[in-house]
Amino acid sequence: MASDDFSAELGGTGFNATDEWGNLENGVSTTAVASPAFRALDPALDSVGLGTVYVSFDFSTSQTVNWGGLAFFEGVDGGDETLFVGMPNGQQSYGIDLKGGQGVLLSGVPIDTQVHRIIAQIEFGSSDDTYRLWVDNLNESMPNGEITLDGFVVDDAWQSVRVASDVGAGTIVTVDNLVIADSAADVGMTPSVDATLTIDRGTGEISLSSGSNLPNVVGYTLRSNAGSFDQATWNTIDGRDATDATPPGDGSVDDNDWEVLTGADSTTDLSEFTFDVSPGDGLALGTTPLSLGTPWMRSPIEDISAVVTIDDNGTEVPLAIEVVYTGDAVVSGDLNGDGDIDLDDWVDFKAGQGVVNGGMTAVEAYRMGDLDGNFVHDLEDFDLFAEAYDLANGAGAFAAAITSVPEPSTIAMLAGVGILACTVRRRTGLFVHLVAAVFLVASLGSTAKAVVYASDDFSADGSGVGWAGGDIWETRDDGGFLSTYPNGSPDNTFSSRNFAAPIDPQNNLTYIRFDYRQGEASGQDWGGFAFFEGLDAGNDESFFAGANPGGTENYAFDTKGGGNLDSMVPFNAQYRTIIGAIDQTGANTIYSIWIDNFDVQNPNNTLTIDGQGAINAPWQSLRFNGSGTHEFADNLLITDGSEQSMIFEPPALETLNLLVDKSTGEVMIENSTGADVDISGYSITSGSGMLDAGGTPGDFNIDGAVDIADYTVWRNHLGGDAAALGGNGSGGATVTAADYELWKANFGNMATPGDGWESFAERDTPVAGFPQGSDNGLGWEAGGNPSTFEVAEYYLLGESAVGSTSLSLGPAYRGGPDGTQDLSFSYRSNGELVFGSVYYVAAGSLATSAVPEPSSLLIVCVGAAMALISRRCR
Prior knowledge:
This protein is mainly beta. The protein contains 11 helices and 47 strands. It starts with a strand and ends in an 8-residue tail after the last helix. It comes from Aeoliella straminimaris.
């Protein structure tokens, strides 16, 4: 239908004979000359009428960021863009931007600066379209990616094609050898090949075979984006056959010289090729497996893809082949891959604290304890490991779950709400119980007429009320909350749901309440709920509630068309209760916002805009979205203003608190719940490095002395992750000259016992009820890398009770009176994760018991008012 090798501006076929690209250079279409570059198709391509369209081209980019590629438009030199192929914006692998809000179809082949052959196909159906994608792979039966979309994005003829990239960001792309056709053969596809890559889960062995003879194999590429390969146990063909080796190979696999193409440190790629062949030459794969050794590092992550290259009379043809795993799958929690979950894995888990980061591969992070795959080692991972350990080693391996017998005074209440309790998971926030209680009271004759438009505790796919039948959240987590990372994948970062009946805030007072937590906290992150006047969260968004809309770096509302209502409360990684009111009962619209504030008369901020602003029609759908840093939401309620206690009555205080004396640096765990709280682990984090882990500033190798060896550590990690400095750096996220100045200022100093954080695990005098373990799980053990960013410790095989006496953790805060107040406190209790409150107090006011002194009564009152909803899940 159209093709161009870009050898001349008016060359090719299927294009307007007088229309130039305007960006040709050295036989390619490149954005180094001009971007974008359009060319009109002649005739226009009625792709829908043809049934199937293939688009094939060679592609390369100067950078692995931003975007660039080939796009198709329903207008000449613009109009509706309905297909984009190449490097979609913000993605890490080659793909297709499906347009129409349908997301991205990714290949899994990482973007680099090499030339790649990309083939896209759209198969137009009677009621839906199927998209397929091949990258460096001509096996028609095995596309790298495939998806079927309901309805149609491409619904008119294509009139023009464009080559473009994000030139403003310095990205240059090139396109060559473009073919647009209606058959697989026209773009060089090859019918199915009967070859297989087999991976033995028990041994890690990888082998190649073919059910029928596959001759002329001249290369292969195995890829694992998760980093599953260990080259030390890779048995290469080159190592067995190379004639230039010492000793020389024996030719037992092939009589040609093979060459390893994989970089020396790569864990993501195993590639070999032979350039020493004549046309039609190469090795033959058959039913006898060709072993490549045992380079697969055993883990639950199974993402390996395989391509073999055959020689077709001098033409190299890459063909994707099937990958088959045999044997029992590796159980999550078996960090070292030896087939069990034991204390060796426990040691590995602790060593990962403070080390896991986004620069690791997924397998590296997993093997150091990142069980949920978000490249962060935190208390959520400890929760998963403890559960896995218990499951693998028999019931009770993790000191059996502690159950409490209700007091007689509560039995009557429990009987009244028993049916409701059966429908609410233990991991659900207390607020949902509060709402349930309100409904129970109402059913017994209350005169309250509160209208609940919609509510959800996210405990099940069909949970909640007020939602359209059969409609579920796409990213609900099994833990009982809403997340922007479904199943640990950052590729789908939003979830939407339609209301059963439209919610009309016009001429009404409408309240919205939900719990929200940002997985990370920086000016680049945002997230929250967006309200839409159309179904399925289309383009008619009229209100947004959450964190950092428009770069505020605070919890705020985007009123759409009326600016932002900023709460002036900086967002961080703690759960916060967000309450919003939209009052359109008058001529204008009044927005109000409350953050962990339950005083209806005193919102954190208000904003009045003329008229109805952007809200001029009922809401029909809701979307939870974020920037991809892992956002969480729980306990959503949308109601009218007729019963404000449903919105503004705080729950009873049921969490432990962390009290911080900014003058002395002392940090204490306080229990004001009125009952013992059993804990099996806790974590205190600070995004700005306000923690004192007990080390000596400048002692980067943690040997107790600041000496020349620490300078070597600084030099070797300059520009890298600050975790390499053992928590004794200047507090930045990366190693900088400020760390050198800190080392120089403290040169010659020795560690002073008792300085900084005092863990339960390593005190000279153990805390009563907090036994100390030693890599055996039978007591408290600290994470392997305490730092200015996190301190954590765990009790794998038991729990300790925090009673009414507050527990000091020593001078663990190093910010001083003017330091940043960004500490986050979480703990594990009875198999649940809880986010506790953090309070900063005046010098010397930390009490030694949970009973407040008069001078600290205000703190407790504020704590009761601002307490986060307890039992919040991961």
